[in-house]
Write a structure and sequence with these properties.
Blueprint lengths: L2 H5 L2 H4 E8 L2 E9 L9 H4 L1 E5 L8 H5 L3 H6 L3 E5 L16 H16 L4 E6 L1 H12 L4 E7 L15 H11 L3 H11 L8 H13 L1 H13 L18 E6 L8 H9 L3 E6 L6 H4 L1 H13 L1
Helix pairs in contact: 6-7, 8-9
Organism: Paraburkholderia silviterrae
GO molecular function, one term: hydrolase activity
InterPro entries: AB_hydrolase_1, AB_hydrolase_fold, Epox_hydrolase-like
Protein backbone atom coordinates (compact mmCIF):
# COMPACT_ATOMS: atom_id res chain seq x y z
CA UNK A 1 0.00 0.00 0.00
CA UNK A 2 1.30 3.45 -0.91
CA UNK A 3 1.75 6.32 1.51
CA UNK A 4 -1.01 8.17 -0.35
CA UNK A 5 -3.51 5.36 0.15
CA UNK A 6 -2.67 5.15 3.86
CA UNK A 7 -3.28 8.87 4.33
CA UNK A 8 -6.81 9.04 2.96
CA UNK A 9 -9.06 8.80 5.99
CA UNK A 10 -11.59 11.28 7.31
CA UNK A 11 -9.62 11.85 10.51
CA UNK A 12 -6.21 12.30 8.89
CA UNK A 13 -7.51 14.83 6.35
CA UNK A 14 -9.77 16.81 8.73
CA UNK A 15 -9.05 20.55 8.89
CA UNK A 16 -10.71 23.82 9.98
CA UNK A 17 -10.52 27.35 8.63
CA UNK A 18 -12.08 30.65 9.69
CA UNK A 19 -14.01 32.37 6.90
CA UNK A 20 -15.67 35.80 6.95
CA UNK A 21 -19.36 35.89 5.99
CA UNK A 22 -20.63 39.42 6.32
CA UNK A 23 -20.20 40.37 9.97
CA UNK A 24 -19.80 36.72 10.98
CA UNK A 25 -16.64 34.68 11.23
CA UNK A 26 -17.52 31.07 10.49
CA UNK A 27 -15.42 28.05 11.43
CA UNK A 28 -15.61 25.84 8.37
CA UNK A 29 -14.61 22.19 8.38
CA UNK A 30 -13.03 20.60 5.34
CA UNK A 31 -11.05 17.51 4.39
CA UNK A 32 -7.85 18.16 2.46
CA UNK A 33 -6.03 15.27 0.82
CA UNK A 34 -3.36 17.57 -0.57
CA UNK A 35 -2.03 18.77 2.77
CA UNK A 36 0.94 16.39 3.00
CA UNK A 37 4.12 15.67 1.09
CA UNK A 38 2.79 12.33 -0.16
CA UNK A 39 0.48 14.28 -2.44
CA UNK A 40 3.02 16.80 -3.72
CA UNK A 41 2.19 15.87 -7.31
CA UNK A 42 -1.20 17.54 -6.91
CA UNK A 43 0.31 20.88 -7.87
CA UNK A 44 0.63 19.57 -11.42
CA UNK A 45 -2.90 18.23 -11.83
CA UNK A 46 -4.75 20.98 -9.98
CA UNK A 47 -7.33 21.08 -7.20
CA UNK A 48 -10.78 19.53 -7.10
CA UNK A 49 -13.36 20.80 -4.62
CA UNK A 50 -16.32 18.58 -3.75
CA UNK A 51 -19.55 20.12 -2.41
CA UNK A 52 -22.13 17.92 -0.68
CA UNK A 53 -25.94 17.93 -0.74
CA UNK A 54 -28.46 19.26 1.77
CA UNK A 55 -29.65 16.07 3.43
CA UNK A 56 -29.68 15.87 7.24
CA UNK A 57 -26.36 14.51 8.45
CA UNK A 58 -24.60 15.15 5.15
CA UNK A 59 -20.91 15.98 4.99
CA UNK A 60 -18.24 16.16 2.35
CA UNK A 61 -16.73 12.89 3.49
CA UNK A 62 -20.05 11.03 3.74
CA UNK A 63 -21.02 12.14 0.23
CA UNK A 64 -17.72 11.58 -1.57
CA UNK A 65 -15.64 8.97 0.27
CA UNK A 66 -15.97 6.62 -2.73
CA UNK A 67 -14.57 9.24 -5.12
CA UNK A 68 -11.52 10.75 -3.40
CA UNK A 69 -8.85 8.10 -3.91
CA UNK A 70 -8.93 7.88 -7.74
CA UNK A 71 -8.53 11.65 -8.04
CA UNK A 72 -5.67 11.74 -5.54
CA UNK A 73 -4.00 8.82 -7.33
CA UNK A 74 -4.22 10.84 -10.56
CA UNK A 75 -2.36 13.71 -8.90
CA UNK A 76 -5.18 16.04 -7.85
CA UNK A 77 -5.47 17.83 -4.55
CA UNK A 78 -9.00 17.11 -3.30
CA UNK A 79 -10.87 19.33 -0.85
CA UNK A 80 -14.23 18.36 0.65
CA UNK A 81 -15.92 21.39 2.19
CA UNK A 82 -18.66 21.03 4.80
CA UNK A 83 -21.06 23.87 4.06
CA UNK A 84 -22.10 26.18 6.94
CA UNK A 85 -24.96 24.50 8.76
CA UNK A 86 -23.71 20.96 8.15
CA UNK A 87 -21.49 18.47 9.97
CA UNK A 88 -18.56 20.06 11.82
CA UNK A 89 -18.93 23.52 10.27
CA UNK A 90 -20.54 26.34 12.24
CA UNK A 91 -24.34 26.65 12.38
CA UNK A 92 -26.17 29.40 10.51
CA UNK A 93 -29.71 30.47 9.63
CA UNK A 94 -29.94 31.33 5.93
CA UNK A 95 -32.67 33.84 5.09
CA UNK A 96 -31.58 34.51 1.50
CA UNK A 97 -29.96 32.29 -1.17
CA UNK A 98 -28.31 29.18 0.27
CA UNK A 99 -26.57 28.66 -3.09
CA UNK A 100 -24.90 32.05 -2.88
CA UNK A 101 -24.05 31.70 0.82
CA UNK A 102 -22.19 28.47 0.08
CA UNK A 103 -20.51 30.04 -2.95
CA UNK A 104 -19.23 32.94 -0.84
CA UNK A 105 -17.97 30.60 1.87
CA UNK A 106 -16.16 28.50 -0.73
CA UNK A 107 -14.46 31.64 -2.06
CA UNK A 108 -13.45 32.52 1.49
CA UNK A 109 -12.02 29.06 2.08
CA UNK A 110 -10.03 29.14 -1.17
CA UNK A 111 -8.69 32.58 -0.25
CA UNK A 112 -7.55 31.27 3.15
CA UNK A 113 -5.87 28.30 1.46
CA UNK A 114 -4.35 30.56 -1.23
CA UNK A 115 -5.87 28.52 -4.07
CA UNK A 116 -6.73 30.57 -7.13
CA UNK A 117 -8.46 28.13 -9.50
CA UNK A 118 -10.33 24.87 -8.95
CA UNK A 119 -12.49 22.25 -10.58
CA UNK A 120 -15.75 21.76 -8.68
CA UNK A 121 -17.87 18.63 -8.22
CA UNK A 122 -21.27 19.44 -6.74
CA UNK A 123 -24.02 17.04 -5.74
CA UNK A 124 -27.58 18.40 -5.30
CA UNK A 125 -27.20 21.53 -3.11
CA UNK A 126 -23.51 21.30 -3.97
CA UNK A 127 -24.42 21.65 -7.65
CA UNK A 128 -26.41 24.80 -6.91
CA UNK A 129 -23.49 26.16 -4.89
CA UNK A 130 -21.00 25.34 -7.66
CA UNK A 131 -23.08 27.31 -10.18
CA UNK A 132 -23.39 30.24 -7.76
CA UNK A 133 -19.60 30.25 -7.31
CA UNK A 134 -18.99 30.01 -11.05
CA UNK A 135 -21.28 32.95 -11.79
CA UNK A 136 -19.62 35.12 -9.13
CA UNK A 137 -16.03 33.99 -9.81
CA UNK A 138 -15.76 32.79 -13.44
CA UNK A 139 -11.98 33.24 -13.56
CA UNK A 140 -11.53 30.86 -10.62
CA UNK A 141 -13.30 27.86 -12.20
CA UNK A 142 -11.65 25.23 -14.36
CA UNK A 143 -14.34 22.61 -15.01
CA UNK A 144 -17.65 21.78 -13.36
CA UNK A 145 -19.28 18.43 -12.62
CA UNK A 146 -22.91 18.74 -11.51
CA UNK A 147 -24.93 15.80 -10.18
CA UNK A 148 -28.62 16.11 -9.32
CA UNK A 149 -28.53 19.91 -9.02
CA UNK A 150 -27.24 23.18 -10.40
CA UNK A 151 -30.26 25.41 -10.69
CA UNK A 152 -33.54 25.82 -8.86
CA UNK A 153 -36.99 26.20 -10.36
CA UNK A 154 -39.78 23.74 -11.06
CA UNK A 155 -39.73 20.55 -13.07
CA UNK A 156 -41.96 20.55 -16.14
CA UNK A 157 -43.04 16.97 -15.45
CA UNK A 158 -42.81 16.01 -11.76
CA UNK A 159 -45.00 17.34 -8.94
CA UNK A 160 -43.14 19.89 -6.82
CA UNK A 161 -41.89 19.61 -4.19
CA UNK A 162 -40.84 16.13 -5.16
CA UNK A 163 -41.38 13.02 -3.09
CA UNK A 164 -37.76 13.01 -1.95
CA UNK A 165 -37.71 16.69 -0.93
CA UNK A 166 -40.86 16.19 1.15
CA UNK A 167 -39.22 13.29 2.97
CA UNK A 168 -36.02 15.31 3.46
CA UNK A 169 -37.89 18.21 5.01
CA UNK A 170 -39.86 15.82 7.20
CA UNK A 171 -36.63 14.27 8.45
CA UNK A 172 -35.31 17.69 9.45
CA UNK A 173 -38.43 18.21 11.55
CA UNK A 174 -38.52 14.71 13.04
CA UNK A 175 -35.00 13.21 12.99
CA UNK A 176 -35.78 9.55 13.72
CA UNK A 177 -34.25 6.38 12.31
CA UNK A 178 -37.63 5.53 10.79
CA UNK A 179 -37.82 8.82 8.90
CA UNK A 180 -34.19 8.49 7.85
CA UNK A 181 -34.88 5.07 6.35
CA UNK A 182 -37.97 6.42 4.54
CA UNK A 183 -35.88 9.15 2.95
CA UNK A 184 -32.91 6.93 2.07
CA UNK A 185 -35.26 4.34 0.57
CA UNK A 186 -36.04 6.79 -2.26
CA UNK A 187 -32.62 8.50 -2.22
CA UNK A 188 -30.99 5.62 -4.10
CA UNK A 189 -32.35 3.25 -6.73
CA UNK A 190 -31.41 0.09 -4.82
CA UNK A 191 -31.78 0.64 -1.06
CA UNK A 192 -30.52 -2.89 -0.33
CA UNK A 193 -27.01 -1.44 -0.71
CA UNK A 194 -27.58 0.81 2.32
CA UNK A 195 -26.16 -0.95 5.35
CA UNK A 196 -27.28 -0.58 8.94
CA UNK A 197 -23.84 0.85 9.74
CA UNK A 198 -24.31 3.56 7.11
CA UNK A 199 -27.75 4.40 8.51
CA UNK A 200 -26.45 4.56 12.06
CA UNK A 201 -23.51 6.76 11.07
CA UNK A 202 -25.86 9.13 9.24
CA UNK A 203 -28.27 9.28 12.20
CA UNK A 204 -25.41 9.88 14.65
CA UNK A 205 -24.10 12.70 12.46
CA UNK A 206 -27.57 14.27 12.36
CA UNK A 207 -28.14 14.11 16.09
CA UNK A 208 -24.63 15.31 16.97
CA UNK A 209 -25.60 18.78 15.75
CA UNK A 210 -29.32 19.29 16.42
CA UNK A 211 -28.81 23.03 15.97
CA UNK A 212 -28.17 22.36 12.27
CA UNK A 213 -31.55 20.63 11.97
CA UNK A 214 -33.35 23.43 13.82
CA UNK A 215 -31.63 26.12 11.76
CA UNK A 216 -32.53 24.43 8.47
CA UNK A 217 -36.21 24.49 9.47
CA UNK A 218 -35.88 28.15 10.51
CA UNK A 219 -34.22 28.93 7.18
CA UNK A 220 -37.07 27.33 5.23
CA UNK A 221 -39.60 29.33 7.24
CA UNK A 222 -37.72 32.56 6.47
CA UNK A 223 -37.23 31.73 2.79
CA UNK A 224 -38.85 28.59 1.33
CA UNK A 225 -36.86 29.02 -1.92
CA UNK A 226 -33.36 28.46 -0.59
CA UNK A 227 -31.87 27.56 -3.97
CA UNK A 228 -31.79 30.22 -6.66
CA UNK A 229 -33.20 29.53 -10.11
CA UNK A 230 -30.22 30.39 -12.30
CA UNK A 231 -32.00 29.50 -15.54
CA UNK A 232 -31.78 33.02 -17.00
CA UNK A 233 -28.05 33.25 -16.18
CA UNK A 234 -26.80 29.82 -17.21
CA UNK A 235 -25.54 31.21 -20.52
CA UNK A 236 -22.93 33.21 -18.61
CA UNK A 237 -21.10 30.02 -17.62
CA UNK A 238 -18.37 29.21 -20.13
CA UNK A 239 -16.58 26.58 -18.00
CA UNK A 240 -16.71 23.08 -19.53
CA UNK A 241 -19.41 21.25 -17.59
CA UNK A 242 -20.28 17.58 -17.18
CA UNK A 243 -23.85 17.09 -15.96
CA UNK A 244 -24.54 13.65 -14.47
CA UNK A 245 -28.03 12.49 -13.51
CA UNK A 246 -29.81 9.42 -12.26
CA UNK A 247 -32.66 8.33 -14.51
CA UNK A 248 -34.61 7.37 -11.38
CA UNK A 249 -33.89 10.49 -9.30
CA UNK A 250 -36.89 11.08 -7.02
CA UNK A 251 -35.43 14.25 -5.46
CA UNK A 252 -34.50 16.37 -8.47
CA UNK A 253 -36.10 15.24 -11.76
CA UNK A 254 -33.95 14.63 -14.80
CA UNK A 255 -35.45 17.48 -16.84
CA UNK A 256 -33.57 19.89 -14.55
CA UNK A 257 -30.38 18.39 -16.00
CA UNK A 258 -31.73 19.07 -19.49
CA UNK A 259 -32.30 22.70 -18.51
CA UNK A 260 -28.65 22.95 -17.45
CA UNK A 261 -27.19 21.68 -20.71
CA UNK A 262 -29.65 23.75 -22.75
CA UNK A 263 -28.59 26.92 -20.97
CA UNK A 264 -24.84 26.53 -20.50
CA UNK A 265 -22.30 27.37 -23.18
CA UNK A 266 -20.27 24.15 -23.01
CA UNK A 267 -22.10 21.34 -21.25
CA UNK A 268 -22.70 17.64 -21.80
CA UNK A 269 -25.04 15.19 -20.07
CA UNK A 270 -24.61 11.60 -18.94
CA UNK A 271 -27.59 9.69 -17.55
CA UNK A 272 -27.18 6.57 -15.41
CA UNK A 273 -30.00 4.04 -15.58
CA UNK A 274 -31.01 2.38 -12.26
CA UNK A 275 -29.68 5.37 -10.38
CA UNK A 276 -31.26 7.73 -7.89
CA UNK A 277 -29.97 11.00 -6.43
CA UNK A 278 -26.51 9.76 -5.43
CA UNK A 279 -24.78 8.94 -8.73
CA UNK A 280 -21.25 9.27 -7.32
CA UNK A 281 -22.05 6.64 -4.68
CA UNK A 282 -24.41 4.32 -6.57
CA UNK A 283 -22.18 4.06 -9.67
CA UNK A 284 -18.88 5.02 -8.08
CA UNK A 285 -16.46 3.16 -10.38
CA UNK A 286 -18.02 4.36 -13.63
CA UNK A 287 -18.49 7.84 -12.18
CA UNK A 288 -14.83 8.07 -11.16
CA UNK A 289 -13.59 6.97 -14.58
CA UNK A 290 -15.91 9.44 -16.31
CA UNK A 291 -14.90 12.37 -14.12
CA UNK A 292 -11.18 11.67 -14.49
CA UNK A 293 -11.51 11.48 -18.28
CA UNK A 294 -13.49 14.74 -18.31
CA UNK A 295 -10.98 16.60 -16.15
CA UNK A 296 -7.94 15.33 -18.03
CA UNK A 297 -9.10 15.94 -21.63
Amino acid sequence: MTATAQAITEASTSRFAHVKEGELELKIHYNDTGANAANAASANAGTVVMLHGSGPGASGWANFNRNVEPLVAAGYRVILMDCPGWSKSDPIVCTASRSELNGRVLKGLLDVLDIERVHILGNSMGGHSAVAFALANPHRVGKLVLMGGGTGGPSNFAPMPTEGIKLLQGLYREPTIENLKRMMNVFVYDPSALTEDLMKARLDNMLAQRVHLENFVKSLAANPKQFTDYGPRLGEIAAPTLVIWGRDDRFVPMDIGLRLIAGMQNAQLHVFNRCGHWAQWEHADAFNRMVLDFLQH
